Amino acid sequence: MDRDELAWLALSRLPEIGGVRCRQLIARFGSVRAALEAPPGAWGEVVGAGVARRARAQAVDWQWAERQWRDLQRLGGQLLTIEDPGYPELLRQIASPPAVLFVLGTADFTRPAVALVGTRQASEYGLVMARQLAAELARQGLWVVSGMASGIDTAAHQGALEAGGQTLAVLGCGPDVIYPRANTQLHARIQEQGAVLAEYPLGYPPDAGTFPRRNRLISGLSLGTVVVEAPAQSGALITAAYALDQNREVFAVPGEVRGGRSAGCHRLIKEGAKLVEGVGDVLEELGPRFEQQAQLVLNFTPPLSVSPEPETSPEERQVLAVLGEEPLHIDPLAIQAKVSGPELLRILLDLELAGLVVQLPGKRFVRQV
Length: 369
Prior knowledge:
By secondary structure, the chain is of the alpha/beta class. Helix content is 47%, strand content 13%. Mean pLDDT is 88; it is low at 300-309.
C-alpha cells in the first residue's frame, strides 16, 4: 500500500483543504506526510489560523484513507494528486483545482478535449445535435467531456462512444456512484472506452451543491465548451461562465426561438460565443490551442510554491466588499452587491473554493478572516 497516496487521501479529507492549500502546505513542510505531522499552529502560518483550527479539529482519518485506497484498487481505479505528472495540466491551471482526482477507466490527459453540455430537458433537435457533434469531435481524435446527466450530456457521451472515440464523464458524486440510475450501462461503457472522473471519493452521494462545483472541472479539463441546448437558467451556463473565467473558448448551438429551450445559447452568442453549426466551427477556433496544450504538458514541473493570496476578479471583490464577519443571507447580499442570483451563486462558489468565503446553514455567507 502506497503511504504517500494514503497521506494525500487523508489530507484531502480535512475540511477546507483543497488543491491550492495542499500545495501551500507541501511547499512549506516539504512533503504531504510532513504536512500532516506538522502541528496546527504551524499550519496557521500557511493557511490562516481559522482554517487551520477547523481543519485540524478532527483527527487524521487514516482508516478512511486505507478503505478508499483498497476499494479504488479493487475497482481498477487510479488516484491522481495535484503534484502527479499525470494530473491534467489544463486542470492544474484553474483557480481551484482539486487536490486529488478519483479516476475509473483510462484517460490520456495529454490529448485535447472539448466539453459538450446542455439541458437535461432536451428536445429531439438538441439530442441529435449533441450526438452528431460528439461523434464528429471523437472522429477527429478529441476527447469529449461531459457530466453524464440526462439529456444533452448523455447524448454527447453516446455520440463519442458510437463513433469509436473516447469520452470523459465528470461526476458530481463519487466515481462509482451512478447518477442518474438510468445511465448504469453508459457508466460501464465509458469506463471501457474512456474514463469516469470525480473530485469526490468513492461512495460520495450527489447533492444540489456538488453539481455546480463539478462544472468548473468540465470546463477546466477542456480547451473549449460547447453549449448545445440550454434555457436561460441552465446549469450549462455555469459551465460556460467557468470556461470564460479559465480563458477557454465558449461555443453555442442556436436553436428554436420559441419555447425558451435555447434562450441561454442565444444569449451566449449575443455576448460573443462562437455560433456552431458543425464541428468545423469548433476546430477552426481551437486549432491554435492544441499546440498550446502540448507545450503545457511538455513543460510540466511540479509546483514549488503558491501565492498565499488568491487573485480575485472585480466581481468577486465587489461581493467581498459587502461581506464581513457577520453572516449575511444570499438575498440581501445580491441586492447590496448588485449581482444577479445565478451570477452571485457562481461567484460565491469560486470564493468558497478559494477559501475566501464560508457558507453557513440557511444560505448565509461570511467572509473568511
